[in-house]
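Researcher: Quick test of sequence recovery. Tokens follow.
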């Protein structure tokens, strides 16, 4: 089992920045990668970004790749999501999730999920 805890969410004005953190513990050796997803009220959970645990290759949703940056610290077992130029439509509950099966943008391919951290962007 892998436990994931997100932090760093909050209220920010449009155009501002936030850095989300995801701390992993437990059987982290089984992870091949970590992804960030988000879910706005009344909408489906959507893929934001993914980083391979070994090698650090990154993948992004097209609509976010110019503003968001995913990174990791293998020593600390942490993954970060730097979000710049935030827009009101970025308001959502942001989740980190771990997979044993390599890169995927599909919710169903992730085995472990955190509880989420709320990001609210005011106009």
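Model:
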């Amino acid at each position: 089992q892998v436990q994931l805890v997100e932090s760093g969410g909050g209220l920010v004005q449009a155009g501002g920045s936030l850095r989300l953190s995801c701390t992993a513990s437990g059987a982290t050796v089984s992870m091949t990668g970590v992804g960030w997803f988000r879910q706005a009220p009344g909408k489906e959970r959507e893929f934001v970004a993914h980083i391979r645990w070994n090698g650090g290759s990154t993948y992004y949703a097209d609509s976010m790749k110019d503003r968001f940056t995913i990174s990791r610290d293998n020593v600390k077992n942490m993954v970060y999501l730097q979000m710049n130029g935030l827009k009101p439509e970025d308001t959502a509950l942001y989740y980190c999730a771990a997979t044993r099966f390599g890169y995927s943008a599909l919710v169903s391919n992730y085995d472990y999920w955190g509880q989420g951290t709320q990001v609210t962007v005011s106009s």
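The chain has a mean pLDDT of 95.
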